[in-house]
Amino acid sequence: MSKPLSGRTALVTGSTSGIGLAIATAFAEAGARIGLNGLGTPEQIKAATNQLQKAGAPDVRYFDANLMDPAAIDKMMAEALKWGGGVDILVNNAGMQFTASVADMPVEKWQAIINLNLSACFYTMRHALPAMAARGFGRVINIASVHGLVASIEKAPYVASKFGLVGLTKVAALEYAAAGDRASGGVTVNAICPGWVETPLIEPQIMARAEKFGGDRAQGYKNLVLEKEPSGRMADPSDIGALALFLCSKAAHNITGTAVPVDGGWTAQ
Ligand code: NAD
Fold first, then answer.
1. CB under 6 Å to ligand 1: residues?
2. For residue 36, what is the enclosing H or E element?
3. Is the pTM of the predicted complex or chain greater than 0.85?
4. 9-195+236-260: which CATH number, 3.90.1150.30, 3.40.50.720, 3.50.50.60, 1.10.10.10?
5. Mean pLDDT calculated for residue range 206-226
6. Which end of the chain is more exposed for a tag (fewer CB within 10 A), N or C?
7. In this prediction, what percent of the chain has a pLDDT beyond 90?
């Protein structure tokens, strides 16, 4: 039986860990070739590659670009566009966080977060989108955050980068809205805006909260989540993978320029 992404190639940035690896796994299960990218030890990269092959990816290629470096992104995109028939699906997922007040935020952290969470997405999209338009099919999925829709204290560069990413998503969606058609699947650009997702990125925030409860992680977790999410639970990375997979389907050909929250009701309040 043919799988929904058979013959497609997906490049997922920051896919050595967390949400990126879960999205890449969902795509691999659907039969896509996977372009893997992200930091990590050779063992971590090998483990991610094995996981994706086992999940069903017919081919997995690791792109070692550090996304802080625009020249490295240009090189990765040039190579990816020539590999496996080009980039049908681009997921801009790599991201970082650092918490401090505006007054205390180190300038280098501001620059690093804007570079990785926002500028790197522009650098990948500007290469990927023209080729998608030429084929009449393409999917760009930007992993933003609820912090692309609402703010929280002590996250100035993160919130600024994610609001910026939602804006970039909308502009690109409009510019490519008429590419392709219903039969080819069209070219869509969307943002997914997760609330809390249980990954290594947020572990320091759970543990900081746990300190208030004598180091009890379970209590720290509950306290952190309930402050914002009426559901009282975090999403699993695979939930984000399932949504990304739906956005890649032909049925989603007319969903573009959206910023979809997966946030347990956080932004409904
Ligand atoms: P994570 O720390 O588990 O994974 C981040 C990935 O980005 C890793 O693969 C890492 O190697 C890669 N990366 C970091 N710096 C890089 C660089 N310079 N070049 C290339 N790759 C780099 O984090 P995660 O929680 O899976 O987060 C993934 C995305 O989801 C981020 O954009 C994050 O802002 C967003 N997000 C996460 C949550 C959450 O609760 N975990 C919520 C909302 C949004």
1. 14, 16-20, 38-40, 66-68, 93-96, 116-117, 143, 145, 194, 196-197, 199-202
2. strand 33-37
3. yes
4. 3.40.50.720
5. 95
6. N
7. 96
